[in-house]
Amino acid sequence: MRHLLLPALLVLGACATAPANDLPSRAATPGDSALPAMKTFSAPSPVPPARANRDIARDFLDLAFRLESGRQLTRFSRFEEPISVRVTGRPPATLRPDLDRLLRRLRREAGIDIATTGAGPANITIESVSRRQIQRYLPKAACFVVPNVSSLEEYRRARHSRRTSWTELTRRERLAIFVPGDSSPQEVRDCLHEELAQALGPLNDLYRLPDSVFNDDNVHTVLTGFDMLVLRAYYAPELRSGMTRAQVADRLPALLARLNPGGRARPARSLPPTPDSWVHAIQTALGPGAAPRERQAAAEQALRIARNRGWRDHRRGFSHFALGRLTQPVNPEAASRQFRLADRFYQQGHGTDLHRAYAASQLAAHALRRGDGARALRLVSPHLATAERHENAALLATLMMLQAEALELQGRLSDARAVRLDSLGWARYGFGADWAVRAKLREIATLSPPRAPNG
């Protein structure tokens, strides 16, 4: 499932406080807004994985033979026939175009025979329901996928039975994905990417992966080059449903050499496993349900674990980032130090350009609070292309709004107006309803110190 961990906190975060009855709804469609037209992304540009095949093989096995809960799976499972997909419920206007785009990518990049069907039963049913309905069953989930059912009602009747257990599965034939039709277009699309990827392939998430949606940090929101390679391997003719971990492990080296020849000569990094104690601390710090003091203590605990283990990869950076976000409301200077440390560790890793863009947004906000428009511009500018390449409209809109405030601080008012206006189309996709877009504008406008009436 896609967790309610982080998305709001990553992008500055004030838009998460609206009352439930003000959630973005089906009324917030492209033609019903007073704001500029919603923008969407053009051709995808995923970056191929720049890691050793030995590391990818280890990742594949840990993704394919373990659940997020930690339970081991004894058999490999996948679909063994062409896969049909249908949409039910009340989908928002953006769901079907985003789904069609994703299916084209899966056919082209992962070689999976998958297509939509107009009526009748399907292998995968995507049901658009309300966020409240999803959280009635899984309070910490934004969306989720279940085997051997085709509707939320069917899941309600069968959810305590072995029928919906992934551990019982040796071959995939029918399952359902539940997405929140009343969330922002980007959140719905992100759910499609993560849940459809898990419906087709790996059921686990690994915090040690810097370049994947199969990671509970939610930094990546659309399937990456690494993810497509994993899915292509999942449906390679060398593998089949029912194989054991040892059988899959035996075939992976030759399989990956065929699919990813560039990974054969790269040296293995072999990042150490992520301990459950760190995962629990991060989920307490950034997930729903904990009090502010509990969150702060959990973030400090996560950073202690990262330091004690000598981590210097993206997980160490993420530990600093989490502490910075929770420190921000009470001590902006201390938070800024944590964001700088996060960026320092992100710089040392591979596949962390998107992580650095998030850190830059926080540091730019701090520069605006200090009235330093020039520094804010230097921080934001290199990461606009990163946000666009990774198809993250919420982050791109936020960076552009920060850029506009920085331009105003420098007296470049016409440039600021143009950038701010341009940001709104991305914000409509990233944040959804008009109130959410305007809340983000207000949040960022309040960062800059008051200016005199003459500018």
Structure overview:
The relative contact order is 0.14. α11 packs antiparallel against α12. The chain has helices at 7-10, 53-64, 95-109, 131-137, 152-158, 185-200, 225-234, 245-259, 276-286, 292-308, 314-327, 332-347, 353-369, 373-380, 384-389, 393-409, 413-431, 434-445; strands at 2-3, 83-89, 114-116, 124-129, 141-147, 175-180. It is 49% helix and 7% strand. The chain has a six-stranded mixed sheet with strand order 1-5-6-4-2-3, with helices on both faces. The chain has two domains: 36-263, Collagenase (Catalytic Domain), CATH 3.40.390.10; 276-445, Tetratricopeptide repeat domain (Serine Threonine Protein Phosphatase 5, Tetratricopeptide repeat), CATH 1.25.40. It is of the alpha/beta class and 455 residues long. The chain has 18 helices and six strands.
